[in-house]
Amino acid sequence: MIQRIYKKEYSEVSHPFPTAVRKPGFMEAGYVEEEYFFEGTANVYEEAGEKTRRVIHENLPYCNRFLVRKPAQGERFSGNIVVEILNATAGFDIERMWVVGAKELMRGGDIYVGITSKPDVLDSLKKADHARYAPISWKITYERPENQYGGLDKAALPRKADCETGLFWDMLTELAEILRTDTEFIPEGKKRYLYLAGWSQSAAYMYTYLNYFAFPAAGLSVFDGYLAAGGVHSFVVPLNQNDYGKEQDVRKNMITYMPVPFISVQTESENAYFDGIKTRQEDSDREDLKYRVYEIAGATHDTKFSMIDYYAGDPDMEKIGIVPDFPSVDDYPNDYPYEYCFYAVYRMLFSWVREGKCPPHGERIEVDGDGRNKTDALGNAVSGMRTPFLDVPAAVYYPYCAVKRANGEIVKHGLFGHMEPFSKRKLEKLYGNLENYRKLVEGSAQKHMEAGFLLPEDVTDCVEEAIQRVVKLSTHNRGNESEILEL
């Protein structure tokens, strides 16, 4: 039970990690950022049968934190509260659902809450600001048997042997209950709609939460809607730390009961490399299964924008000793702008929850008999959720990159894709000139806007970015800056 919540103040020498305040557009959007610590006790659970649980440890003390990003003027609050399970895979709190959706959330007046989900990130928090984060603790005092963790990817394994990942489930449920009613950090006066969001490992957290905690009684849901993105479906999050490494059925990451709207968003990476194909489901509008899935063609799990550009020059990242980069011998990281898709998806989810407006069905990426994504004559994925950047491409977007191991072996890396820009000659052969290219891009943007997959507010930016990219990419052709498309 949460017993105390208190605000951590900003000062000249101390601020939250990560912070959005220094990012472009945040202050201009009239937003403020706050951080709260919360203390209490939580139970630890284990499975007691299919989608049932039992308590194995009661009332363990903890201290955790959450971030709040909201309109400075309370009257701008839309009523939407998006709670992100911050991703711990890289050893620090990755706020990916904020990164890919911040523009839409801020222009809508939505509130964002990011909750630390795993004690793996405690070292990075304390490197960022030891004094500020010293109280955070998930430590336990009981002994548990040694766990060899089986064959799990090291990135998913708990880093803290003296902590308990399983404390999180009660923290999340009780925080949601407080967000429904609290008036200290959530403005009064509007009906509140709570949404749970997660990326990658955090999407796997969501599936476990849905199976065991999200529906406490018939007709009740802790959250009003769910958005799981970049889900690594080969990884099933256990209820407690000692169960990491035990054999799990990936079908636990499938949705079989969902009385409130749920949207899943996948990139090419998840289909091709992380068992997305094994848990592929059809859309549903049944009252007990409200489900949509969108597969973004061209995009990969990590992109230049979301993993490199967003953190570039961030002094806090340098302080914790983690500066994300492109782990490949390929020349160009995948920079497919999938944020346009996420802006649309967020709005679809909000409309579905608040107005009962079912979102459109999206085409799935075509796959071959082995579950691999099919490609067209230009080398890009066939079908899927698309944008002008793929309808009228200026590059081939691959769902992998080539990584050189210490022994010199080159292997495919499925988290981060790469791209190969078309040459000036190829661009001219495909599109003739920049004027014609613009017409094709505008036609594509109009089509996707009418279908609901590109927001009207984003059409102009999308078109102009596509034009800028084709000019920039053409200058990359063998480094010849004179090789640009002529008007």
TrEMBL record:
Start and end residues of each Alpha/beta hydrolase domain: 14-463
* InterPro entries linked to this entry: Abhydrolase_dom
Q: Which Pfam families match?
A: Abhydrolase_10
Q: What is this protein called?
A: Alpha/beta hydrolase domain-containing protein
Organism field = Schaedlerella arabinosiphila
